[in-house]
Each structure stands twice: as C-alpha cells, then as structure tokens.
C-alpha cells in the first residue's frame, strides 16, 4: 500500500518530480566531472613527464613540481656541473613558457634538440622533421588534431608566428616545443633554464645520483621521476584539493535545496491527505517513512541519470577538446557521488517529513 502510494505521488506531480531528479543528476554529474577533470589533468601531466625518459628532474629552490607554476629560470651552466656527476649520462635543460593563447592547460618547452634527444631518445615524427630555424615549432599529434594543424602551418605562440616543422607522437613532456635559444630570447632569459632532466647511465644509480646532486645543489628541488609520479595527486596541491571540495559542496547543496523545497511544497499540498491517513490510524513513523522513501526513490533515479549524464558530458568534452584528458568514472567516486546525492536527498526531505509526521489530524483535515 505504502509503495503504491509513493509511486502515485511521484507520477502525480511530473514536473516537480523531473526537477528533483535533475537536481540530483546535476549533483552527481558535477562531482564526477570535476574529479575526472582534475584527476585527468594530474595523471596526464605525470604520464607525459614520465614519457620524457629521464630518471631525475632538478629545479631551483622554491620551484613548483607543476611546471606551469615554476619559478624564475637559473643559469644554464648548472647543467655542465650536473653532467660531471658520476653515473650521469646526459642532461637536458628546458625553459618553460606559458601562453594563454595555446588553447588549453599546459606549457611550451624550450629545448636544446641535441641534449633532449640524448635524454629522451628523441621524438617519434609522424610528419615533418626537427627544428631547422629559430622560429620552428614542434606540436604533438593531439594538439595538431585539436587545432587543425599540419606541417607548414603558422602557429602564433608568445605573440610570435612560428612555423610548424613537425608533428610528433604525444607523451613526451609538453605538447608544444620551440628551440631553447628562441625561448630564452623571447623571455629575456639568456643562457637560462627552468629545469634540468637527467638521464643516468643505469636506472639503478638514480638514488646515488640524486644524493650527489643534493650535495652539489643543497636546497634545490630534486626528485626522481618515481617520486614525481607519487607527488602528482590533489593531496599535494592544497589549492586544487580545496577547489574539488568546494565544487562537491556546491553540488551537494544544489541537490539538498531542490529536494528540500520540493518535499516541503509537496507536504503543504498534501496536508489533507496526511490528515486522512493519520485519522485512519497511520503512525508518525509510517508518515515519516513514506516521505523519506519518496525522496530516496527520486534520489536513486537521479543518481542513475547522473551517471549517464556524466558519461555523456565526458564524451563531449573529450571530442571537443582532444588535448583535455578526463578520467573515466571510477567505481570509488561513483559510489561516493551516489552516497553524497542520496544523503543530500534524505537530509533535504527529513524536516518536511518530520513536519508531516507531527501534523495534528484535526488541523490537517481542516486545512484548505
């Protein structure tokens, strides 16, 4: 009897039902997409850094391991001192350049092709060739696809027109590469670099080499690529973690408020019905249970709609922005999003349900 009544109530007010379901769906979608975007950003950056092929990365004191937030560059001659350390096979200096006109989150790598090739093993060229002049640029295949570029295209970077000389396979640090000397000239950072990627003669010497670098450059940011991979989490980026928490809080608030208003209005409209039920002997627990079950039903349907919506939004984002990596929905976050949505729906409906359960039958029957 109770379940049938719940279903009838839900179907009797289709617009309000749809709005409530949409609110929960939006809540779930926001949680999953925000987490997918932030996790995808970190994982993609970590994979591309690992793809360079270096064993150790060396940055000046105070530099951020998020390259786009790196501090001022340091003399490139530091690389010569690093090359003298035992078990160091090659050192590749890189100068980071950020450019908001590049359509996406990332940095431009200014590289010295000879040292870069020694550390990374070189690019895989899908078309074109390496730098032939100071205003040449290499782009990876994902960036080329997103911006409809081909070899010979003109690309505006750092307020300068560059010639796309080659398209390379993605996965080696950045998506955009220009000659180191050009990056230094455009940023007035002559003979300087932002980071040094180091290749050891054998990966087994990584720890010994890292210790030797620490003795040579005390206070510098020195990390093995293995350490760097473990650092690339939102827990190591307080601002990003705060952003995720704020967005999740906003999503839960939306679901809570809409469910609260929907159920409160529903209780007001059904005052006489509740009075009839109570006059027939319905207990407070029975009335409370009906309202909470109805909110739960709306929450479950909204959660399922949210899963479908999140998958659709992710597909649209990936197809519209090929360089934007959005992690697929994980079981863990899918469960967390569902629990948050369901909890928000139940909390939002609890006061209206409690109010309904406390109605005096006489007053409820006299309500107009």
Task: Please explain how this structure is put together.
By secondary structure, the chain is an alpha+beta fold. The protein is elongated. The longest helix is centred in the first third of the chain and has 37 residues, at 14-50. The protein has 13 helices and 12 strands. The chain has helices spanning 2-12, 14-50, 78-83, 113-120, 141-147, 180-186, 206-216, 225-231, 238-269, 271-279, 284-320, 331-357, 361-365; strands spanning 56-59, 74-75, 88-97, 108-111, 125-128, 136-140, 154-157, 160-168, 176-179, 192-193, 195-200, 221-224. The strands form 2 sheets. Strands 1, 3, 4, 5, 6, 7, 8, 9, 11 and 12 form a 10-stranded mixed sheet that branches. A two-stranded antiparallel sheet has the order 2-10. It folds into 2 domains: 2-43 and 238-365, no CATH class; 61-219, no CATH class. Helix 2 crosses helix 11 (284-320), helix 2 (14-50) runs antiparallel to helix 12 (331-357) and helix 9 packs parallel to helix 12 (331-357).
């Amino acid at each position: 009897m109770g379940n049938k009544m719940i279903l009838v109530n839900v179907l009797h007010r289709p617009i309000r039902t749809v709005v409530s379901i949409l609110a929960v769906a939006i809540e779930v979608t926001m949680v999953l997409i925000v987490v997918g975007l932030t996790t995808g950003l970190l994982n993609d950056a970590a994979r591309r850094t690992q793809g360079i092929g270096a064993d150790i990365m060396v940055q000046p004191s105070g530099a951020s391991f998020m390259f786009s937030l790196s501090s001022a560059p340091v003399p490139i001659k530091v690389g010569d001192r690093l090359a003298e350390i035992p078990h160091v096979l090659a050192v590749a200096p890189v100068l980071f350049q950020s450019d908001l006109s590049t359509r996406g989150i990332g940095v431009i790598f200014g590289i010295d092709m000879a040292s870069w090739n020694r550390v990374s093993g070189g690019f895989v060229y899908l078309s074109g060739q390496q730098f032939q002049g100071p205003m040449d640029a290499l782009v990876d295949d994902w960036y080329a696809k997103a911006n409809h570029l081909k070899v010979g295209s003109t690309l505006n970077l750092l307020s300068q027109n560059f010639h796309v000389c080659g398209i390379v396979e993605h996965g080696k640090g950045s998506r955009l590469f220009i000659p180191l000397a050009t990056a230094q000239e455009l940023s007035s950072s002559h003979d300087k670099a932002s980071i040094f990627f180091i290749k050891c003669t054998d990966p087994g010497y990584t720890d010994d080499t890292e210790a030797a670098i620490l003795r040579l450059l005390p206070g510098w940011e020195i990390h093995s690529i293995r350490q760097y991979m473990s650092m690339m989490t939102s827990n190591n980026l307080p601002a990003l973690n705060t952003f995720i928490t704020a967005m999740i809080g906003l999503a839960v608030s939306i679901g809570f408020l809409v469910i609260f208003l929907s159920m409160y209005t529903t209780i007001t409209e059904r005052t006489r019905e509740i009075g009839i039920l109570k006059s027939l002997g319905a207990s407070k627990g029975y009335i409370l249970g009906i309202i909470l079950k109805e909110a739960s039903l709306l929450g479950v349907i909204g959660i399922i709609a949210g899963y479908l919506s999140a998958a659709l939004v992710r597909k649209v984002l990936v197809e519209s922005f090929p360089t934007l990596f959005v992690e697929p929905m994980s079981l863990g976050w899918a469960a967390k999003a569902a629990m948050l949505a369901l909890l928000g729906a139940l909390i939002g409906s609890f006061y209206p349900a409690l109010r309904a359960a406390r109605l005096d039958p006489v007053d409820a029957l006299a309500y107009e």
